[in-house]
Design brief:
heterodimer; A: mainly alpha; 2 domains; B: mainly alpha; 5 helices
């Protein structure tokens, strides 16, 4: 009898949420702007790794195994400069360390019932773009199948673009390619700015991060750190101030 | 190519482990409300830090980057669909790029 009850409860929580397939497709749809931004960027990466003389399979596998845009470009540059193994790995680590914060943040938006295995799978797809797209959704709790669809779309676009770049070997016209470089930035603007109208704390935190990053970058006499560190420091200070200044409730509209 | 596949494995490890540990380990931990609020503010803080000043060098031309950024800002303020914000931003940057050539 008790076992039966348990079964009923499981099916009820299942049907209470939206169907996995529908959530997955919602995620794929949300991933389309990311894909638009990733493909030209990945083509550029493929071209760079090709022209750097890196074996085709290494360039292709890097997108498949590492899946972290900026650090892949940096790694290829460092390989070209014959930098040491340890230095490339350390640089990759520092550039991607911010995903630690994102992973912690997204874990608070996911249901406890979601298994550790599923979480470990979703973690592979945590990037600046998928993370911000997921967490700027209205829902308090994020559906794992939504994130799966989102991540898979972004991952596919990144890998397809990489292979186009590696194999085609010829770029888009330069003007178009340069303009496409802005794609992910304008996507970030499109994700962030509408939330300003709903929540003052969100606006304050975001603007604080902008000011801190600018200070770190431009104020003379400050130690010049890599972009990876600058983003981490700006994010941590701004989110910390936000948590200090705005107590619960007030971060909701 | 000196390092090859082994380099990829190490890059995978140092990238994946920070992405994976918090998601897996924080599942069963009840966080202090302050830390919880801190984590809730990570998304807007990350977005701010990513957008600026990075956007200024995104097109290789300061003026076209500003043009694209401002166009996106205006479209986003009007709460227009995200894909249209993205397309509007790219087109503005492109248009500027073509005009100045």
């Amino acid at each position: 009898m008790e076992k039966n009850l348990e079964v009923i409860q499981i099916t009820e929580t299942r049907s209470a949420g939206t169907e996995p397939k529908a959530q997955f497709l919602r995620g794929v749809q949300a991933g389309i702007p990311i894909a638009i931004g990733f493909i030209p960027c990945a083509i550029a990466f493929g071209l760079l790794s090709r022209s750097a003389g890196i074996p085709i399979y290494i360039g292709g596998l890097m997108s498949f195994m590492v899946f972290a845009g900026a650090s892949q470009f940096v790694a290829v540059n460092l390989i070209m400069l014959s930098t040491s193994f340890g230095e490339i790995v350390l640089t990759t680590f520092i550039l991607n360390l911010r995903h630690l914060l994102m992973s912690a943040s997204i874990s608070q938006r996911m249901d406890e019932n979601i298994s550790k295995k599923f979480r470990a799978l979703l973690a592979f797809g945590v990037t600046d773009e998928t993370f911000t797209m997921a967490t700027m959704q209205k829902e308090e709790k994020l559906d794992p199948f939504f994130i799966l669809g989102l991540n898979l779309t972004a991952f596919s676009a990144w890998n397809i673009g990489t292979w186009i770049g590696i194999l085609a070997g010829s770029a888009l016209p330069e003007t178009i390619q340069a303009s496409m470089g802005i794609t992910l930035y304008v996507m970030f603007i499109g994700l962030l700015v509408p939330s300003f109208r709903k929540s003052l704390p969100i606006a304050v935190v975001a603007l604080t991060a902008i000011v801190i990053h600018s200070v770190l970058m431009w104020v003379p006499f400050l130690p010049k750190l890599s972009t990876g560190w600058n983003i981490i420091i700006a994010t941590v200070i701004a989110a910390f101030l936000g948590a200090l200044l705005f107590d619960k409730g007030s971060d909701k509209s | 190519m000196k390092y090859g596949f082994l380099l990829l494995v190490f890059m995978l490890l140092v990238t994946y482990i920070p992405r994976m540990l918090p998601l897996v380990l924080l599942r069963d931990i009840k966080l202090h409300p302050f830390f919880d609020r801190f984590l809730k503010f990570i998304p807007p803080a990350v977005l701010g830090a990513l957008i600026f000043p990075g956007i200024l060098t995104s097109t290789g031309n300061l003026a076209s980057a500003i043009a694209g950024g401002i166009a996106a800002l205006i479209l986003a303020l009007f709460n227009i669909n995200l894909t249209l914000v993205v397309i509007g931003g790219i087109l503005s940057a492109l248009l500027y790029q073509i005009l100045i050539m």
